[in-house]
Amino acid sequence: MSDPNSNDFVPPPPPSSDSETSDGAAMSTGQTLTGIFFEPGRVFESLRARPRFLAAAIISTIALLAFTTLYYQRVGFERLVTEEINSSPQAEQMTPEQKEQAIRIQTGPVVKAIRYCAPILVVALIIAAGAALYLLGSMLMGRQLRYKQALAVWTYSSMPPIVVSMVLNIVLLFIKSTEDYDIARALRRGLVQANLGLLIDSKAAPVMGTLLSSIDLFAFYGLFLAALGLKKVGKMSSGAAWGIVLTIWIIGVIMRCAFAGITGGAM
User: Fold this and answer.
1) How far are the Cα atoms of 112, 126, 181, 257 from residue 227, in angstroms, in the given order?
2) How far apart (Å, rounded) are the C-alpha atoms in residues 145 and 229?
């Protein structure tokens, strides 16, 4: 046995820390972007040690921009604006001159540019607010979650449903005739009908239509990924993770239904 006091004594290595153990599951950004579709649990374990969100946020934004831009080109921007104004609840109180003025303003270069670029701002705001809600939820559950980790969970759980749905929407955009769908509503809800909104006329019953449209396959895909992400990144139980995710989703549905009731149009 070696003498601890001799010069040849080498102390044993320190026990591995949690961070070193987590680093063993490290993945590159490219691996996380592809792996989130096939092995999301492993991706979120990697994001716990190295949280990042920018690449996933950019991909989601590009997907939304691609569909929005192609939709405007396919349908026609002026035609879309005209349809939106004519189908709005306020249309009955507007004179033909007021409608023409509204169309002229909406199709002007400034408003047009804003609408083309709107997905960038919308995605940024939703990501920032969503991550803050995850952070608040984790705090209420007594769990430790940094804001950057919350950003990683939100962006990576949102990206797959957005990418898949936007790709399908773009495909349908060139397969279906623009006469086969409500062009104003399709811009908001997409062409892919993967929800129960098909069961009701949303124009006749906007609140119920909004509620049924919320029961959506892509939304539940995102909820599953979000709950898994909170469980892995925040080291919380499945019940706590699902509690946070479902609470936020239910509040969002209630707000959308309330807004549909106020405006008279399905969301």
Assistant:
1) 37, 18, 34, 24
2) 11
pLDDT at 8: 54
The whole model's pTM is what? 0.82
- Whole-angstrom Cα distance, residue 45 to residue 120? 28
Query: For the chain, what percent of residues have pLDDT higher than 70?
Result: 88
* CA-to-CA dists, residue 211 to 105, 183, 246, 265, angstroms: 32, 20, 15, 12
In 3D space, the residue among 158, 187, 159 whose CA is nearest the CA of residue 173 turns out to be: 187
Instruction: Give the CA radius of gyration of the chain.
Output: 24
End-to-end CA distance of the chain: 76
Segment 134-153 mean pLDDT: 90
What is the longest distance spanned by two Cα atoms in the chain? 99
What H or E segment, with its residue span, contains residue 211?
A: helix 206-214
Closest CA to 80 of 101, 108, 97, 103: 103
Question: CA of 21: how far to CAs of 37, 110, 152, 237, in Å?
Answer: 24, 52, 20, 20
